[in-house]
Fold:
Amino acid sequence: MQIGTKIWDSGWGAVFLTVYTGVAIQLVRPEPLFLKTLSVLPTILVMFLADRQNDRLINSFAGGELRRSTDQIQKITGHDDFYESASEELQNRVDDFDRRAYQKNISILAGLIIALTTPFVGFYLRGTLGLGIGLVIGLLATQLLTRRSIQELNRLAQNISEPYTAKYENQ
Structure:
């Protein structure tokens, strides 16, 4: 995929991570403007990691469901190269799964980074009160980004076999 497509497909996780990093930099060091441009670095790192390790991340977060779905597809189609032998429509659905999985992986990683760093940033800025606020923000990031994205990734993995089931049951 091209860089522009990857950036476009990165989703809300990348947006929240960039905004969070920008706000954290502003609160810690408000003077230098060039530091604010560094707020995109964690997002770029997460996007690179999600791109290069997409299969490994999918297996980590939705491996069981994906394995069940691919086993079901192999049973339905009777062979291992079910992607290549599928129709263009089915291949497009699998490609859409990969694109959405990439997006969900970014959201999962962004939520984890935000959840792990907000208590420390909060403590640095406001002491114990900041630590408490950071923990609340971290829990929200875990719930809204990480947990929901893992659930969505598992749902996508479950549904990947549906087009194969529909196609081969009608034959």
About this structure: The first helix runs from residue 3 to 9. The chain has a mean pLDDT of 84. The two ends are 34 Å apart (CA to CA). The chain has one domain: 3-169.
